[in-house]
Design goal:
single chain, 260 residues, alpha+beta, Rossmann fold, Elongation Factor Tu (Ef-tu), domain 3, eight-stranded antiparallel beta sheet, 18% helix, 31% strand, elongated
Length: 260
């Protein structure tokens, strides 16, 4: 039996009907589809956030899971739609960097979806996830072979978002890549890649410097502190308060770590 697991990751939110419509279109074509909602509250128009969410969630999903990723500030424009085959799984999303998690892997096959297919509702629209991407995925989940719908391209031809930090002996330059529901700030710096002891480094963001390191939130003594989060990245957190609010930080802001 063909795999019917499908992960959904979007910035659509839950206030509108968009997510329900996607599921409806897919279920009409693949009635047995089983949905895994990774999140529908990604920061709007932020393809780089998708890579972090996929990295953190996919290890805990069924190995045979397919996916639809929709963070699409260029919807309705000339940007392409990608179909990525990773192992025997298929992932669909706009060619804007939101599928960078897969594009950085070895052994994946990358395809550009043809603009004119007979089952597309329209060539372009302001809701391409409904009119193009969901019908594609529904047919894949129903067992159809997508080979005739796409053209194989090199990985380098697709847009890849690079959030890797620049790591030096005494300075590390990175970005804020996520702010969670509690206001904890996740940076692009993996703690395991920092030279030497974590305690020998301070972090500067938006003109504020933080040098307190802790191992859990309860150990934070004042304002905000640094720790290695459960995701493996350096995190800036507050004790029962939002570090993002305290520091005035947004996703995409530059952070600098300096060795003392």
């Amino acid at each position: 039996m063909y795999r019917k697991h499908l992960a959904l990751l979007t910035d659509f939110g839950t206030q509108d009907y968009y997510v329900a419509v996607l599921k409806g279109v897919i279920r009409q074509l693949a009635p047995d589809a089983e949905f895994f909602d990774i999140s529908h509250n990604l920061p709007s128009f932020s393809p780089q956030s998708a890579s972090f969410f996929l990295e953190q969630s996919l290890p805990y999903m069924p190995q045979d899971i397919n996916g639809l990723v929709v963070i699409d500030p260029g919807v309705g424009s000339g940007r392409g739609v990608l179909l990525i085959k990773s192992r025997e799984n298929y992932w669909i999303g706009p060619d804007n960097g939101c599928l960078s998690h897969f594009l950085k892997k070895e052994g994946v096959e990358v395809y550009l979806v043809k603009e004119l297919l007979p089952f597309f509702k329209s060539r372009r629209s302001s809701f391409e996830a409904r009119d193009r991407m969901a019908p594609l995925m529904g047919r894949i989940l129903s067992g159809e072979d997508p080979a005739s719908w796409c053209d194989r391209i090199e990985k380098e031809a697709a847009i890849i978002v690079d959030i890797d930090p620049v790591i030096g002996e005494s300075e590390i330059i990175g970005l804020v890549i996520h702010i969670d529901h509690f206001g904890n700030i996740v940076t692009s710096v993996k703690a395991g890649l920092i030279p030497g002891r974590l305690e020998d480094w301070t972090l500067e963001v938006k003109g504020k410097r933080v040098d307190q390191w802790v191992t859990c939130y309860e150990d934070i003594k004042w304002n905000a502190a640094l720790l290695e989060g459960s995701h493996g990245y350096v995190e800036l957190a507050g004790r029962q308060l939002s570090a993002a609010d305290c520091c005035g930080v947004d996703i995409g802001d530059k952070i600098v770590m300096i060795k003392r």
